[in-house]
Request: fold
Amino acid sequence: MIDRTCPANRKTDVSDQSRRPYGNRPTMKDVAARAGVGLKTVSRVVNGEPGVTPDTERRVRESITALGFRRNDSARILRKGRTSSIGLVLEDLADPFYAPLSRAVEEVARAHETLLINGSSAEDPEREEELVLALCARRVDGLVIIPASDDHRYLEPEMAAGIATVFVDRPAGQIDADAVLSDNYGGARAAVAHLVAHGHRRIGFIGDQARIHTAAERLRGYRDAMAEAGLAVHPSWTAMGSTDPGRVGAALGAMRGGPEPVTALFAGNNRVTVTVVRRAAADGRPFALIGFDDFELADLLSPGITVIAQDPAALGRTAAQTLFRRLAGQHEVPKRVELTTRLIPRGSGELPPE
Amino acid sequence: MIDRTCPANRKTDVSDQSRRPYGNRPTMKDVAARAGVGLKTVSRVVNGEPGVTPDTERRVRESITALGFRRNDSARILRKGRTSSIGLVLEDLADPFYAPLSRAVEEVARAHETLLINGSSAEDPEREEELVLALCARRVDGLVIIPASDDHRYLEPEMAAGIATVFVDRPAGQIDADAVLSDNYGGARAAVAHLVAHGHRRIGFIGDQARIHTAAERLRGYRDAMAEAGLAVHPSWTAMGSTDPGRVGAALGAMRGGPEPVTALFAGNNRVTVTVVRRAAADGRPFALIGFDDFELADLLSPGITVIAQDPAALGRTAAQTLFRRLAGQHEVPKRVELTTRLIPRGSGELPPE
DNA sequence: CTGAAAGCGCTTACAG
DNA sequence: CTGAAAGCGCTTACAG
Reply:
């Protein structure tokens, strides 16, 4: 016998479509009708609220199972005003540096029963803004952002309206907001000082685009460490720009082949480092190298690659924890947290000058 | 002068909180009141619908800007019945194999103006189910799943209710559903045949847990290739289990130190391969090795690591495209797509027996 | 060209 | 212990 109270068994016609946008799924009203109780009673059972007799509860549960009811959280969200979701906007989900960061944010979100909506900005400020505002329109409870833009004034109304926001890896531009960063400056200084201590005087730096905060900080650390060692920096020794292998390869060639050839290189991030290693392997002329960011298998190359390691999972975890503290009602002034970096010597950074 | 029509300027009291769950954000009603027009007219302007005079539109836009209105998509979603979001459930966002897959899914979703909700199952069937059902409660339009579970009957009511679902990397268990897979069997066979062609007779296989589809298929490929070469497989030559380095290291030690020591190894996935490479480097006894899955820097190790490469981005892209085709109304029977793998010789797989 | 009414599927506030 | 009414902020269907 067909149960006509079950919407799945109703005859569907086109006009019905608009009335039931969720593909004929049963609602609490359907469950209530079948169980012969009020809507609110179903709500109580579904949400585990007290004040329902065991017998009533049993009838409601039977009805839920029979109809295959699952609460529509879209409706719940609309009424409650909290979506229990947060947005994470980063440059590229697939980047080995951001992937563990993302996973760490997810774990913290999960502990707070919150879903994670992920988006890649592809290092494009417009795409970042578009994504962030789409997330705001969805009324995510909060945002964790690795910014591509350097102007976040577009976010001010959203933040004022209550969307908690924490920036990671790079600070916000033009607005005051929480930020969790690595000590890029200190890490870069330590790298260069290490090369100097191993006898190098002509040290090059190939970094990411100078408009990116981390790249600028690492360049600053490089310059300061050189100055502290009493070493002048030849203009040909620094090259900021995209991490495209062609660009990096050309910069390396110029530094090593010029009139003042460098004997050591400080690579500004993991992608630069990998390109440099690949190039050096092709050349067969090993030279001293320290890379910013650790990467898998760095220890298995020969020589092993000395790196300045960040802790991407800790960055993500700290950012997410800061976010949930804000969501729990902490209203202090925005603060900047800086995580330390660690030099891991593996051989390439300890080579003497040729 | 303070504009009392702007909700942000209203005096807030506790009772007001419950009436305005979205932190006093202006709604279309507020915009309409300030502009002196009807609610529907605001809706028309916000959604770019025709039939509004330029003058009216101007007044509405002024009102939107003045109040800082942004449409609440939670409400829109509830009414429309499509959330324009899809869920992606995988083992671990941070895994170098899944990260590009995830990014590819995101790109396809973006092209369809759809947001991506990401979740890691941590290879735990219960956690997978919990996550997937939470996404269903949010009424995502579709799901892309790399399953940890081998029984997906829990998804049947959701799929029947219209949530499109595509499985990637591994097929669904106990239900009929679209799946996009790699040719694990063929890839494994090719790897073993390659080792045989280079003179090996005693070849080991260290794989992931046998209950995982990809691991089982690769084992089957290994066995068939050995049989085709007329080689019997000694029981100590296969070891299925977790990818924990301790387990893999022990398995390797047993295979190489036993009474029938292997001269070559086929490693069942990227994590096994990395552990084996690390172990081999520590031993200083190189041996022939082919790994399933390519990985960054595999070409820079010495010898370079010969691999069976999959295309994780293509897996993700194909799965997402299949999903959106279903969402567009394609109603054929579920189908299984298998992507080919590619053997990339780099040296380690071409070493002769010791 | 414009808008009032009804409704998406829940929760809230309240009454019995 | 139980439920009817109102409302979250939009869109739909319809009337003027």
